[in-house]
Design a protein that fits this description.
Helix content is 54%, strand content 11%. The protein is an alpha/beta fold and 473 residues long. Bound molecules: glutamic acid.
Length: 473
Amino acid sequence: MRKALVLLCGSVLMLAQFCIAGKHSIMAGRTKRDARTLRVTTILQEPYTMEKNSALEGYCIDLMKELSKKLDLKYTVHLVKDGFYGRQDAQGNWNGMIGEVVRSEADLAMASLTITAMREKAVELTKPFMQTGIGIILRKDIVSSELHFFEFLNPFSKETWIGILIAYLMTSVCLFIVARLSPCEWSEPQTEGNRFTLLHSFWYAAGALTLQGAGPQPKALSVRVISVIWWLFTVVLLASYIASFSSMRNSDSAKLSIETFEDLAKQDIIEYGTIRDSSTFSFFKNSNHPTYRMIYEHMQRRHSLVSSVEEGIRKAQGGSFAFIGESMSLDLAVARYCSLTRVPEVIGMRGYAVATALGSPLVKNLSVAILQLTESGELEYLREKWWATTCVSKEGGSSGPLNPHCLGGIFFILAGGLALGVLLALVELAVKSKTSAEEQKKSCCSVFSEELSCRFRNSSSKKDRDVPEKSKA
Ligand code: GLU
């Protein structure tokens, strides 16, 4: 009976609006639809509708533009007065955007408005323009991360591991070069082999990295400088690795394990809540599932509801609060704020739709246009445009992987040590060349370059390859 009455009122109102529009169109010499400006209600929620320099932008604003282009519509957008999506009270009255459409204060509701059975009875809903589910977000450091196979790599970030590998390669090559250059390390390049072949240098550096002290031991100051710096580097590195590894393990054991809604319902260490008067709240309220009922009763008892997605995200960032919301919005929050994580379980799949008054002739055209935009990939493009964000870390990184800048000092010292080693080796060679030049009555430069070429010319000669045997003997 009520529905019939609402339908009748809706049709009369639409008719009246079309008559007025028709009158205007005759006067202006335009078509009926051009003359009618639709009032679109929306709600502030990132990235659907956002305020920028007193104008509105976002996914929903772009979508409205596309729909208006397709259907040749004129429209004005306003924000919903009470700041709600729409829920029916005990007297049957609707609040939020649904309320505005029902009371004809708006012709369209364009927002992340979830399709529900109750709303479908009160307004016309188009085909969904986006699919989502219900999920949970909370601070990463509250929940324990699952252990994976390469857990031992976690104490250092990827960049740090790459830095260590480069440092190892560079030090080994430097050892090899310096041991060749230095006359104190290799006094007779013409007659004897060099103990520090490239392979030996790699072996020596790897031995130090694991605190094993692999030979051969260097004699020259230049090679010793590099060795000492490398030892210092490895000691700091191992100490940082062990400290970071144990702090990661210790902090993990004190954390909660929340992978599902059941895990959340069964604990009472952290508070949780959803948006007041939202479809997510109604989902828990109307559910007969024991876990979801527990969650609803807990939220009612503890008054832990929030008034917007932004407030929920802010509370979750503060810690000790899990925000239950729609996965699409939660994924954006996780992409924006590195301190947050979304638990794997997603329930209650649903879609977002545009709402119009009951009996509105617009709904069919809007549905067709939405489907056309989906099929042409336009909606996917909009999604990528508004969800393409990077997370800005505000964490102190207390027990996260160590980044290269945390160990920057020791990398810097190593680089300085390597440079000093090479310099010393060149000085040693220069001193030797000077003495030889005086003895041979030749120019110092020519003796220096002869020495250099002699030391690198026969790097792959048989003499070098025989060295391991010689040094063993
Ligand atoms: N999209 C929801 C609604 O239409 C609001 C957000 C939520 O439920 O988390 O009510």
